[in-house]
Design goal:
The chain is α+β, with helices and mostly antiparallel strands. The chain has twelve helices and twelve strands. The structure holds adenosine-5'-diphosphate and magnesium ion (MG). It comes from Pseudomonas benzopyrenica.
Length: 322
């Protein structure tokens, strides 16, 4: 099994390092200190992804001034990445893209800083508490019922529509990058994001030639074959995630879009999904980008509930148990 297949199996982001034009300098970094920037005390590790590690931390300055909620999250790059001399630009790219997206369903970033002693760059951000969609799928292997699914799908579609409307592509939408908190859903991890063509021209662009990255099972065929990130590619990933939530199963048996195309796999219609909603989802799952659903507004309209509940189901559960 090659690296790409293995990454697909584990749902991990896979990085293919194309040879850089000049050899990057590898820095030998000291271990991550417990106190970053003289201000943030790292408490515990919250999660590790393909690229970063996220810690729960306390902002000692806020604490000193009596702030009752000084807890934040801190994202640093994994040691493998942090050791490249230009890795900080990678983290800054994520910061710059996300910080301009102010939306109730997108994670809020606070700042980008460097700890000078350890030479580590880090992002300070909103601490999110709740299950990721990954964890939810482990708890609900048969998937969600239609009303529950709508309550997850609509804020996710809103977050994605807002992201695209603001000139940003997420590039790595998957269950482990979406979380359900007591104050609603949040889309996070724009580490592989990039600005849409001709938008945000002043923003540093990462050379995707060097950091070709994708999560195989959610990557569109154009991303796999040409390294092309497009709004329609984000829609493909979103469709795979929502299909998985509807049925507990990946639409193409956890295979890549390329494999699904050569095997001509036809995703089955989820049992309880209304016809109109399925038609849009099926179109968003099209392997061929020319035939794929392009319009998030239309998708949202087809998935809109008739009468909206005051709070989504997981918030109602959390409120009841506190
Ligand atoms: N703001 C946050 N609050 C709480 N946990 C988080 C936060 N951001 C990320 N995590 C956890 O850390 C994991 C890795 O973070 P992520 O940003 O996805 O890193 P990567 O870019 O390496 O995938 C996530 O899957 C999640 O479990
Ligand atoms: Mg991630």
């Amino acid at each position: 099994m090659n690296l790409q297949e293995r990454a697909g199996d584990e749902g991990l982001t896979h990085f293919a390092f194309a040879p850089p034009r000049t050899t990057p300098v590898i820095r030998h970094l000291p271990p991550l200190p417990e106190l970053l920037g003289g201000r943030y005390r790292l408490d515990s590790l919250l999660g590790v992804g393909g690229m970063g590690a996220v810690y729960r931390a306390r902002d000692l300055l806020r604490e000193q001034y009596g702030d009752p909620a000084p807890q934040i999250a801190i994202k640093v790059l994994n040691d493998d990445f942090a050791e490249y001399s230009d890795a900080n630009a990678l983290l800054y790219g994520e910061f710059a893209l996300t910080v301009r997206l102010r939306h109730p369903h997108i994670v809020r970033l606070y700042g980008f800083e460097i700890d000078h002693d350890s030479e580590r760059a880090f992002i300070t951000l909103e601490l999110l508490r709740g299950p990721t969609l990954d964890a939810l799928l482990c708890d609900r292997p048969e998937g969600l019922d239609w009303t529950e699914l709508q309550e997850v799908a609509l804020p996710l579609l809103d977050a994605l529509q807002f992201t695209h409307a603001n000139g940003v592509l997420h590039g790595d939408l998957k269950p482990s990058n979406v979380i359900l908190t007591d104050s609603g859903l949040r889309l996070f991890d724009f580490g592989l994001g990039q600005p849409c063509e001709d938008l945000l021209p002043g923003l540093p662009r990462l050379s995707r030639g060097r950091f070709n990255a994708w999560t195989v099972r959610y990557a569109s065929v154009e991303l796999l074959e040409e390294g092309l990130l497009t709004p329609a590619g984000d829609l493909y990933a979103c469709a795979c995630v929502l299909y998985e939530l509807a049925t507990g199963k990946h639409p193409y048996r956890r295979l890549s879009a390329k494999q699904a195309r050569s095997l001509q796999i036809e995703p089955e219609r989820p049992a309880a999904m209304p016809t109109v909603a399925w038609q849009v989802l099926r179109k968003a799952l099209e392997i061929d980008p020319a035939r794929r659903q392009q319009d998030l507004g239309e998708w949202r309209a087809a998935w809109q509930p008739t009468a909206a509940a005051a709070q989504p189901w997981w918030q109602r559960l959390l409120t009841r148990s506190t």
